[in-house]
Amino acid sequence: MIAVAGWFFSFGLQTTLFPGVINYTLNESPYRLGLAQAALTAPMLFLLPMAGVVAERLDRRWVMGGFHLLACACAGVMSFLLFQNLLSYWVMIIYALLVGVAGAFVMPARDSAVNAVTRVAQRLGRRDFTLQKAVILASLVQFAAQIFGMGAGVLAGQLGPAPLFVVQAGGLAIGAGAALLMPRLPRQNTGGESLWTSLRSGVLEVVRSPILAPMTLIMLALGLLVVGGGFFVIIPVLVRDVYDGGYGLLSLLLVAFWIGAFIANVLLSQAGDIERPGRMLMLAQLVTVVSMGLLALPLPLYALFILVFSWGLGGGVGISLSRAVVQENAPPRMIARVMSVYQLGMFGGMPLGAFVMGYVVHEIGPRLSSLIPMAGLLLVLIVIALTTPILKLRRVR
Fold first, then answer.
1. What's the fold here for domain 2-185+194-392?
2. Confidence class of residue 52 from pLDDT cuts 50, 70 and 90?
3. What is the DSSP string of 84-135?
4. Could you identify which of 71, 74, 170, 171 might form a hypothetical disulfide with 9, taking C-beta atoms 3.0 to 4.6 angstroms apart as the criterion?
């Protein structure tokens, strides 16, 4: 859990620092902000499926530790360049690509480790420690760490971003140390299967599954429309151009979202196992649909905070339950591969969403642009509800 906290504290801080440097320090256009945000996740589009196979074949401690250290080095270089006033837009693009590579390999290794730890706990007599509970616990740690990271981002308005990139590097270094000190987890016996055969079988498992395929499609829609378009472009530009804010306001809005997500997961952890996770998941996504639509209204600042907090409540439920559903319905020997394809839906859609929405926001403004992700996600949810068994899904025991 320390490794999870170290990564997501730094990720939360980066969520404020990266668009903040592009938007407020370099004062780039929404189009170039979208391009930079796309670069942050573009490597995942190409590397995630292979990273899932790597996580099954290699020692996950070294995979996680090594790529934590790569991201740590990148944050350290960013701090140095800012202190020396040498930072440029294209340096930010290079940083984004390298951090994206690190994230692509860390995610499937970390998420598959949760499944392995749950099985070990159950063998040791903790039968009540279900996978759903383990995922919710990991999400609580993630959300809490992200909140602290984003909260630290408020200081960028007073201290500047350079010292906070040092803090980000420190969080990643702690995460690397924790990952390397993890106990050895079992590796998948490949039976002589080639890397490409393993990669192909993982993709086919998701595509052919009546549960895994729609779950991945929902993640693709969220990555393309909501995260890539909403979080990466619409929110930062809304803060700057409509509310005349900077690092501090952007950071506080993101904190409000993740506080909502954290509270939602506290409630989930107290509620026990959700027997109909598909229905709950779809309701949570409808909260996102409504939230994106309401962003089009000329809201006062306090109402924007309430909206973003409520959005976080729905988002927190959606994030945790979707991970649990995928892990419960994936074959045990293919957890990392299936999770990497599932994550590809989210992170594969994000670069295209950020790139396209950067252009759209530049042309029609952030408020009107928010209606596009609202309508797109609603259409996807309707199609999935009518054509898949997701609403009938029950928890795997």
1. Growth Hormone; Chain: A; (1.20.1250)
2. confident
3. TT---HHHHHHHHHHHHHHHHHHHHHHHHHHHHHHHHHHHTT-TT--HHHHH
4. 171
